[in-house]
Design a protein that fits this description.
Layout: E1 7-8, E2 19-22, H1 36-41, E3 46-49, H2 53-61, E4 66-69, H3 73-84, E5 93-98, H4 103-116, E6 121-124, E7 128-130, E8 136-137, H5 147-159, E9 164-168, H6 171-174, E10 186-191, H7 199-202, H8 205-217, E11 219-228, H9 234-240, E12 245-249, E13 256-259, E14 264-269, E15 272-276, H10 281-298, E16 318-322, E17 325-330, H11 335-348, E18 353-358, H12 369-379, E19 382-385, H13 395-406, E20 412-415, H14 419-429, E21 434-439, E22 446-448, E23 454-456, H15 459-468
Parallel strand pairs: 1-2, 2-3, 3-4, 5-9, 5-10, 6-9, 10-11, 11-12, 17-21, 18-19, 18-21, 19-20
Antiparallel strand pairs: 6-7, 7-8, 13-14, 14-15, 16-17, 22-23
Helix pairs in contact: 3-5, 4-10, 8-9, 11-12, 12-13, 14-15
Length: about 475
């Protein structure tokens, strides 16, 4: 296949001489075998796929098409994507960020610190993209996109003179089942908290953690691997990277002077104070991890004062103060994130009641929903269950799972499938003593409905429109 110039896993993108890769089914995805004939009809004359009775029959049916059987078409796809782009990963220093929560903020903090140090840095995260030509919102729904998107991005970074790329490495991308990261060897790795997520894909917590460990395994000899000091899986991470230097970090090393819902004032030494733009402690922990990584990358011992001026990440603990109380837009979508956020808000805003607009993605990680409901029941006086990304599962099954966790509690519980109406209702029920949490969408620009239909969405704009009705 040395003559390959264009590859795709999407049959709709096939033209003459495009090589079509048919991936086996993963999670809720459909088998690529179902699209082989569509790819052929559009001009593809080479198909890479796993061997099965179906693909062998197709090979006999289309004798003029070259069928290449591979144990893992995904691995082949990643290698080819990298090769077509000139193996850009070999020209860059790539830092992987992984964990259950906190990847996006940690990645952005590290990117910002490197830029402030004069290092030409790039980033590809859930929210942001910079290939060396300037930071923009990421256009991709996947935090770590497929190889035919990832390696062209890395190629642009190399062409634009980027030295270091900060890359969110999701559990899906680290799994050999997708092999999205393919031939990438990491200069360093930063772990955030690891709890439980995406078990619909991984099958078990053990498999999920095992795939997360692949980031440590794929860190180069002499590189670094960092993890929170209280990390549940630190011993396993350490054992996974005997070739790298393992270290831990903690927010408790930082002298906190004052804290509120929106910010933390920290002592930077010599009587100086630094305002960090988040109140919740986990964000400061993410920043400390990024600071430690920046020190190792730059070869300089960096103090906490380097956090001065760091900007906020859109959709992450975004506080809006109004006459009708406080509103918080946050991407929290796991039980652990719910617990940390609601516990913090309860402590920081004593005497205020909490109203939460909540949901969970359809066809994704069903097991977490009841626990999310239980946590809402523990902290909230009003719980509004709405839609996040209902997909083909629809609203009702998701709501039923959350309600099971809520059980009998004194909170007022409403079910409003339309997210716009749910937010309007939350605003209507709020007052000066309320903190209203809008959870699960954060920065996201679409809501996904049945049949893959995606409707444009802007959580902040919808909130502002709802607020304007009461001004």
């Amino acid at each position: 296949m040395a003559d390959i110039r264009d590859i795709t896993m999407d049959s709709r993108r096939c033209v003459k001489d495009t090589v079509f890769f048919a991936f086996p089914p993963m999670g809720h995805g459909r088998s690529g075998d179902l699209f082989i004939e569509d790819a052929i009809s559009r001009g593809s004359r080479t198909v890479v796929c796993a061997r099965s009775k179906n693909t062998e029959n197709l090979a006999r049916r289309y004798p003029d098409v070259r069928f290449l059987f591979r144990k893992s078409p995904q691995e082949e796809f990643s290698r080819r994507a990298a090769r077509i782009c000139g193996n850009p990963q070999q020209k860059l220093r790539i830092i992987g960020i992984t964990g259950t929560d906190g990847k996006t903020t940690t990645a952005f903090f590290l990117y910002t610190l490197l830029k402030n140090l004069g290092i030409k840095a790039g980033i590809l995260s859930t929210v942001y993209l910079d290939d060396g030509s300037g930071i923009t919102d990421s256009p991709y729904r996947q935090s770590t996109p497929e190889a035919d998107v990832l390696f062209p991005f890395l190629s642009r970074c190399a062409r634009n003179g980027v030295d270091t790329v900060v890359l969110e490495a999701t559990s899906h991308a680290l799994s050999p089942r997708t092999a999205r990261l393919g031939p990438v060897v990491f200069e360093g790795a930063v772990y955030t908290t690891i709890s439980s997520e995406h078990l619909d894909f991984h099958g078990s917590l053990q498999a999920y953690v095992g795939d997360k460990l692949n980031l440590a395994r794929r860190t180069r000899k002499g590189g670094f691997v960092l993890s929170p000091s209280d990390g549940t899986y630190n011993d396993m991470i350490r054992q996974a990277c005997p070739q790298a230097v393992f270290d831990t970090y903690t927010a408790s090393s930082v002298r906190v002077l004052r804290r509120d819902l929106e910010s933390t004032v920290i002592g930077a030494g010599d009587g100086k104070e630094v305002m960090f733009p988040y109140g919740e402690d986990v964000f400061l922990q993410n920043a400390v991890g990024a600071l430690r990584a920046a020190s190792l990358i730059s070869g300089r011992e960096l103090g906490i004062g380097e956090l001065s001026g760091i900007a906020r990440v859109k959709g992450r603990m975004q506080v809006i103060r109004t006459g009708r109380g406080l509103f918080v837009i946050d991407f929290a979508h796991t039980a652990d994130a719910y617990e940390r956020l609601m516990r913090f808000v309860t402590a920081a805003e004593k005497g205020r009641k909490i109203c939460a607009v909540v949901s969970s993605g359809g066809q994704r990680d069903i097991g977490k929903r009841a626990m999310m409901g239980t946590i809402c029941a523990r902290y909230c006086s009003v719980i509004i269950i709405t839609s996040e990304d209902p997909r083909d599962e629809g609203f009702s099954p998701v709501a039923a799972d959350i309600l099971e966790g809520i059980g009998d509690c004194p909170a007022r519980v409403l079910q409003i499938p339309d997210r716009t109406e749910a937010i309007r209702t939350a605003v209507k029920l709020s007052d000066a003593r309320t903190v209203t949490l809008l959870l699960g969408k954060g920065h996201e620009k679409t809501i996904e409905f049945q049949g893959g239909k995606k409707v444009p969405w802007d959580e902040e704009a919808v909130l502002q429109e709802a607020l304007s009705r009461w001004e």
